[in-house]
Design a protein that fits this description.
This protein is α/β, with parallel strands linked by helices. Strands 1, 2, 3, 4, 5, 8, 9, 10, 11, 12 and 13 form an eleven-stranded mixed β-sheet that branches. Strand 6 and strand 7 form a beta hairpin. The longest helix is centred in the middle third of the chain and has 20 residues.
């Protein structure tokens, strides 16, 4: 076969969204995955498509299965298929890129990537005080992918930043200061940005929340929309308590033709790029910058023979506003264009560790329907710790599929700071937030640049100072720190 015969095409897309208030009737994640996989198979129009799968890849979700890919392979009649499981900290785009690369190299002709989460089922079970049982698997995957480093620094965890929202809010403060916006102006901006995502979700039949709240509702805290980490309210944050699944069935062009899948339903994989260089938030010299997005994102666009303004459809990973804004700036995309095809993770739904599958499926739906010729779907792992990009097209490209790992280049272009356990003395605020927890008093958290060039983190429970940190710009101010406490 020629190289053109090995070009990877997306031929089957499947999504599953369930909302069952009774947890005893809700599908467990494995069954959601199987539903999406069957939908992807049916989408090809070829009964033999799933039986020919040679590799199945699954990103880990909030479940305990040992080898979900193996169960999927057996269920579709492909028990000899390689089973792959990736842990949290591996880019979802990595699984898609790996699958496309194996096809492009002629190592396989059919690949399946599937994922699911049932966070709503877990929530409903917790509220009802009942268990949410899952089937037991005792076999192991053929391949386990894991990150090489920790996603968070120990200092961050000790400061109460165990969840991503606080770290993203610190990055958000640095982004605001770098752009010279006031606190109020910045809050207005991200509320308008998020209201735009919500309007897209309203037109997405797969979206979890199609009610399209307006900017004022998103911006301001309320009983139904409490602050999480200033300036983020709940509506700024990814909605992970969803029952959603996605599946992507990829073939070589030759296999797709052999199966008789109509060419107008093929979506061509043009490029997949990523950066796996890992730096904890507190060690990043420039909190507002994202070199991985700039280098890997632009490499994907260029490899596809495109420019940023030639991208018809874009889905930027939308766990929190900073991720969207920093990616858009890195790629040269104007913030006033549509930056999502789904409606974003707060509204379309952000199933734990597999949103990119749903976003890619929705992009493919839109391309097939004639709503554009090209699409870019981005991926994030950690706190914009890793960056990934996939570029797709409705028509056959002149060039072959391109895959690149930009980790080394990103490492060379990323300045870091040593993070120390504690600091006493004056220090300059690099980024900050106020954490809010149910039944807990708000707590201010700040990341400092010390006079010696190191980084330190400190907190405050002083109500007056906490109030000021939610009304004034503190980035760039010099404060007094004693150990791990802000004293003035």
């Amino acid at each position: 076969m020629t190289d053109a015969d090995h070009r990877p095409v997306l031929v089957g897309i499947g999504v599953a969204t369930r909302r069952e208030d009774d947890p005893s009737r809700a599908l467990e994640p494995m069954d959601l995955m199987l539903e999406a996989v069957q939908a992807a198979g049916a989408d090809t129009g070829s009964p033999a498509a799933l039986r020919g799968v040679q590799s199945v890849s699954v990103p880990r979700g909030r479940w305990t299965y040992a080898n979900p890919a193996g169960e999927i392979a057996r269920s579709v009649g492909a028990p000899q298929a390689q089973s792959v499981l990736s842990t949290v900290g591996v880019l979802q785009q990595t699984l898609i890129g790996n699958a496309c690369e194996r096809i492009a190299r002629g190592e396989t002709h059919t690949e399946l990537v599937a994922g699911a989460d049932a966070g709503y089922r877990l929530l409903r079970a917790q509220l009802a005080g009942v268990a949410a049982p899952e089937r037991t698997q005792t076999d192991a995957p053929d391949c386990l992918l894991s990150p090489k480093d920790e996603l968070r620094h120990p200092v961050e965890r000790r400061s109460g930043l165990a969840m991503p929202v606080g770290l993203y809010a610190i990055l958000e403060s640095a982004w605001r200061a770098s752009n010279g916006w006031s606190v109020a102006e910045h809050r207005d901006r991200i509320a308008r940005l998020w209201a735009g995502l919500a309007r897209v979700a309203a037109d997405n039949p797969h979206a979890w929340n199609r009610r399209a709240p307006d900017a004022a509702t998103i911006r301001d805290a309320s009983a139904g929309n409490p602050l999480q980490a200033f300036p983020y309210t709940r509506l700024h944050c990814s909605t992970w308590n969803v029952d959603q699944a996605g599946a992507l069935l990829l073939c070589s062009a030759a296999r797709a033709a052999e199966l008789g899948i109509p060419r107008h339903r093929w979506v061509w994989a043009l490029a997949s790029t990523e950066s796996n260089h890992m730096v904890a938030v507190s060690a990043r010299a420039r909190l507002e910058d994202c070199p991985g997005a700039r280098l890997a994102g632009r490499a994907a666009i260029e490899a596809a023979g495109l420019t940023a303004d030639a991208l018809d459809l874009v889905d930027l990973y939308s766990c929190f506003p900073f991720a969207v804004q920093s990616y858009a700036a890195a790629l040269g995309l104007p913030p006033d264009r549509d930056l999502t095809v789904t409606g974003g993770m707060p509204f379309a739904g952000g199933p734990y560790n597999n949103y990119v599958l749903q976003a890619t499926a929705r992009a493919a739906e839109r391309l097939r329907a004639g709503h554009g010729r090209t699409a870019l779907v981005s991926s994030v792992s950690g706190v914009v710790t890793k960056q990934g990009f996939g570029v797709w097209a409705a028509t056959a490209p002149a060039q072959g599929f391109h895959r690149a790992d930009l980790s080394d280049a990103v490492a060379r272009g990323t300045a870091t700071r040593e993070v120390i356990d504690a600091w006493t003395g004056p220090a300059r605020v690099a980024g900050f937030t106020v954490l809010h927890g149910r039944g807990q008093a708000p707590r201010g958290v700040a990341l400092f640049d010390t006079p010696g060039g190191t980084r330190a983190m400190a907190t405050t429970d002083d109500p007056a100072l906490v109030d000021r940190m939610q009304a004034e710009e503190f980035v760039g101010r010099t404060l007094q720190v004693r150990g791990d406490t802000i004293v003035a």
